[in-house]
Task: structure prediction
Amino acid sequence: MSTATVAARPREDDEGPRADGAHAVDPGRSGEPVLTRHLLTARGLQWIGGDRSPDPYALLLRGRPPESLTARLWELPDVSRGALGAVVVARHARAAAALADPRLVPLPPEGPGSVRPVTLADAPRGLGPVFAPAPELLAVPAPDAEVPAAEVPASEVPGGHDAGDPAVREAADRALTAVLDSVRPAGNGELELVTAVLEPVARAVTDPADRRTPREWAALGGLLDGYLCPPRISDARRQTAAVARLREETGGDPDRIRAELLRALTLWASVNLAGYTVALLLAEDRRWRRAGSGDERWLRAAVAEAVRLAPPVRVESRYAREPLEWDGLSVGPGEQVVVVTHAAARDPRVFADPAEFRPDRELPSGAPAVPLGGPAAVVLPTARAVAAAVAAGLARRCPGLRPAGPPVPRARAVVTGALAALPVQLRAQARPGG
Result:
């Protein structure tokens, strides 16, 4: 990673140089001007990178819809270097191999730091973790390489469940009943599903003790996005405060911190996967009817297909801990390797009609449909269970539910694709083609 600093002279609110020569800023102790300058500079580099090539990975970081960039990513060599300096991998086979390669690690070899102030000198080797107030989350070990990511034992997740576990289905069903009894749609029957239904249900399953506010869970759940895309300064403040409180609560115990961060990511992923699953099922009346029919096998296949189209992590970042060579491309120690899992899960070399939602699709054997590593693979079982329970319960209780608009992603949620809103209409009305 680059050793560039934000300013030529140290400031009182800088931490000063690290022993390894890099310059780090702790967002919990550094002054806001340093953090603001860092985030704006990183965002500027991403913007310039998208204008200069235009590089599809830089455009992804700028907020372009990932679906609009997959074809351009596939046009690149299987292993290529983007305008931002990172090595980019977007094909399924290469993505799975990269995430299983022990020479690629989740954190830079010189250590996680918290925030690395960047300048234009950083671009040639990748921007690294842009904002990482809780590097413990990145350091979550990946599941056993021989176990497909979708089969990670639910016991590894705080409050985790298998997709078919009756406990989570019952918990989600009870929560859904209570939430639907209390919601009050607008006069035309419209309702914003994420805030009104999905978040309360997911919290009831993953945090039954109700220990944190929705805002705190959102701050912790969205940490993965900041590792690659600089958050707005207001979001950075909230995340820094939430992490500081977590460290104080746990006495700095790394295992407890990691467990609570995983709980937050589980909640975040459950809300998002449930939302995208519902949106995909609502696109056709026959799908929605079948979701509420009690056909468990079909419902699990539908959720698996939703995972493929809307994975809990759209981009995975790794760093070379030793010199590598892929397809003639040299990767030096510390250089960033980016795996675009969203594109890999839609690779036409592996999936026919990859953009279509087809629950009856034959998924590849011996490897997960979506290459995932680290925390994303660990939290996936619970997210699938919540998504299945919510979809089945909503379809059964609200057979006339229909979309009132497309899913709305959160700003700068490049890594998780987190949903800000999912507008639906509860008033039962027939739709053409049902």
Remarks:
- Residues 1-25, 112-116, 144-161, 428-434 have pLDDT under 50 and may be disordered.
- The longest helix spans residues 254-282.
- The longest strand covers residues 316-320.
- Residues 148 and 367 are 6 Å apart (CA to CA).
